[in-house]
Amino acid sequence: MEFRDLALQMALYLFFAANMAVGQYNTSITSSMVVKRLLEGYERVTPAGATVVELGVYINSFDNINEQAMDYQVNIYLRQQWHDRRLKFDYSGDPLSPDMIKLEDGMWNKIWVPDVFFRNEKRADFHSVTVPQRLLRLYSDGRLWYVSKITAKLSCPMKLKKYPLDTQKCPFIFESFGHTLERVVYKWLPNSVEKEPFEMPQYQLIGWTQRDCSQNYTAGAFPCLQIDFLLKRDIGFYMIQVYIPSILIVILSWVSFWIDIDAVPARVPLGLLTVLTMTTQSAGANSHLPRVSYIKAIDVWMCMCLLFVFASLLEFALVNVYSRKEFNIWRRTNSMMPVQNGRKHHHHHHHRHGSDGAEEEIPLKKVVTTPSGISLHMNGKSDYASLREDEKRFLIEHKQKARHIDKISRKIFPVSFILFNVVYWVTYFMLPDD
């Protein structure tokens, strides 16, 4: 009994499987017959009248944004829809007749399809792994739905005045290559721009705008549609790589104000090191940018940081020169003052012969050499005053003045740099993008 039930189930299964196979075969034959009949006498020319072509894109990825080459790469599904009355069919009397036919690969070469091209394209490719990634559907009312997967590199004229605090507008322009507005009209599909959730390393896709960009050429007015992608640059990378290091270098240059003015071997290398570091960083910040003729936000920042660092080095030079110059002037002014304490005395004598022929020694003057190298010529009868204490006191007083300049610089430089930061960030955050 169990064997008979099992045999009956197997027979029913084979019966239904055979019916399904026959149905699919009949449907396949019907679709092929419909397409074959529609293409009999079909000419691959533009349909009569003004054909309305509706366009839309689905964005898979958005990457390789290159400021130097001013381009970007996008991977999309390009969707096109239009009506061709020559391809209408109606087999409602046949229950196996489909309302929609998926045309086989290569059928887009046998019927008319819109000649859409990307006006700002640098390079574009269809995807064909593992099969040509194109879809062409024909509906009974003559409507065609054509989808193709494309990767395109497109030009994006960038304005870098606010770089790296900028927002770029990158266009994607669709235009007819050979048909004027009298023959083809472009319109947007409903939900014409959609995107896959994705992230970019340095930008955020904050939105897009759409517009008609049809314009007149010598050959006529050609249909055109344009998408402008709004790309806001992420500041995080530049804060870590540019702004914070340059701020630290500027602060490091202020350490010089806390080093004594007599420590020349310490202050000079510190100043030179910070200047050279800022110069190197400035060159690195602009290495991946085009050589534009206008000033960028990053140029303003790096130039001002370099100016602060150079001013710190210059401040030490001025303080050092000031203290030495004042002392040298004072020393020259007082070089003829008589001294006696702590000085070397050199007696100069003049020898002459007396009336009796004997040699007579006459003291003329005394040369006094100070520890600072001042040679004072005195006559032997002078009362020498002390110069060593005056010299030390004058030198200390002027070094105190130089140190006072350092103390003032400790306040002026940070306050000035903070004010510059306030003006810089407020200006470039509030400045509108062109």
UniProtKB/TrEMBL annotation:
Give the main location.
membrane
Give UniProt keywords alphabetically: Cell membrane, Chloride, Chloride channel, Disulfide bond, Glycoprotein, Ion channel, Ion transport, Membrane, Postsynaptic cell membrane, Receptor, Signal, Synapse, Transmembrane, Transmembrane helix, Transport
TM segment ranges: 235-259, 298-322, 412-431
Entry-linked InterPro entries? GABAA/Glycine_rcpt, Neur_chan_lig-bd, Neur_chan_lig-bd_sf, Neur_channel, Neuro-gated_channel_TM_sf, Neuro_actylchol_rec, Neurotrans-gated_channel_TM, Neurotransmitter_ion_chnl_CS
Where does the record say this protein resides?
Postsynaptic cell membrane
The protein's matches in Pfam families, at most eight in alphabetical order, are given as: Neur_chan_LBD, Neur_chan_memb
Which residues are the signal sequence here? 1-23
- The residue ranges flagged as biased composition, category Basic residues, are 342-353
Membrane topology is:
Multi-pass membrane protein
GO terms assigned for molecular function: chloride channel activity; extracellular ligand-gated monoatomic ion channel activity; transmembrane signaling receptor activity
PROSITE patterns in alphabetical order: NEUROTR_ION_CHANNEL (PS00236)
Disordered: annotated span = 340-362
Residue limits of the Neurotransmitter-gated ion-channel ligand-binding domain? 34-233
Q: Might you report a single GO cellular component term?
A: postsynaptic membrane
- The UniProt record lists the Neurotransmitter-gated ion-channel transmembrane domain at 242-325
**Matching NCBIfam families, A to Z?**
LIC
Q: Which family does it belong to?
A: Belongs to the ligand-gated ion channel (TC 1.A.9) family.
Instruction: From the Swiss-Prot or TrEMBL record, give the protein name.
Output: Glycine receptor subunit alpha-2
